[in-house]
Amino acid sequence: MIYAGVDVGGMSIKIGLVNSDGKILKTKAFATEQEKGYKSMFARTADYIKQLLEESGFSLIDLAGIGIGIPGTVDSKKGMIISAVNIGCKNVALAEEMSQYFNVPIAVGNDANMAALGEQRFGAGKGHENVVMITLGTGIGGGIIIDGKLYEGNGGAGGEVGHQIIEIDGEQCNCGRRGCWERYASATGLINQTKYAMAENANSLMHKIANENGGVDGRTAFLAMDAGDYSGKAVVDRYLHYLAEGLLNLGYVLHPEMFIIGGGISHEGKNVMEPLQQKLNEDFERSGMLPYIQVVQASLGNSAGIIGAAALVM
Ligand code: BGC
């Protein structure tokens, strides 16, 4: 039997066919194009699942279930999207919507929760019972696993770590609040800060790097820093400062064994994990609130969301 895992993001939707060992057999990605509305988004998702099955030599009969990770608040018991501001969805009965196209169990959950499940079952969190997954992408997602179980909060509205306030009266967030962590420490936040710094530093190496790579992205400041550019390093330092403060807030509340860092920015590896680990250790050492919390890079990379979504329906 195989499962389809779907990871819906602000920019792209990724689908994978997954077997019961959590192994991805084949994937496909396409642009979210949220401006076309949710009906189009999920009709295209259904088409691509069917296409993937066909291309892999399977038919609908082989499909045992579909799991979908959504970048927002989801009532997973009802299969309902409550609010997903980064894809413009509110009160969408998604399991019902998808059951027009498929006659198999359909599970819907929050994207970061899916990634947390994937990492805890098959990745960096294997063998650990208390882990918090943080995804750094268009927004910041959080997946909280306590005593081996996903903690979703009442109605599934918990774990919205990206909307903790890190700067009072700060930048406007899509959710309506000001100064949310994800405005500063997501990939979007990093890109914005990179652009501000570039506007102020005409001589920064970041201009050349952005030109060579077809525009500013989450790597621009890191690449400049690695090449010895001072303004690139300043952007990265400030970014990591915001990232660490948000993690510390979560650490003081939940104190898990580990933070698993996923999403696009996590591919920076040591450049992110080591300074974060150091900042957290110094802080907890000062306060005496030990043991340390391990900071680790997600090991399933971009696949965690797909695998976790499939795991939800398994
Ligand atoms: C949403 C979360 C989501 C995260 C990552 C946030 O803006 O509120 O539900 O997990 O982005 O996509």
What does this structure look like?
It is a single chain. The protein is α/β, with parallel strands linked by helices and 314 residues long. The protein is 39% helix and 24% strand. The chain contains ten helices and 13 strands. It has helices spanning 38-55, 94-98, 111-122, 181-185, 187-200, 205-212, 220-226, 230-254, 270-287, 304-313, and strands at 2-8, 12-19, 24-31, 63-70, 73-75, 80-84, 89-93, 106-110, 131-136, 140-146, 149-151, 258-262, 294-297. The strands form three sheets. Strands 3-2-1-4-8 form a five-stranded mixed β-sheet. The chain has a five-stranded mixed β-sheet with strand order 11-10-9-12-13, sandwiched between helices. Strands 5-6-7 form a three-stranded antiparallel β-sheet. The mean pLDDT is 96. Beta-D-glucopyranose binds at residues 71-73, 85-86, 110-112, 135, 137-141, 160, 162, 182.
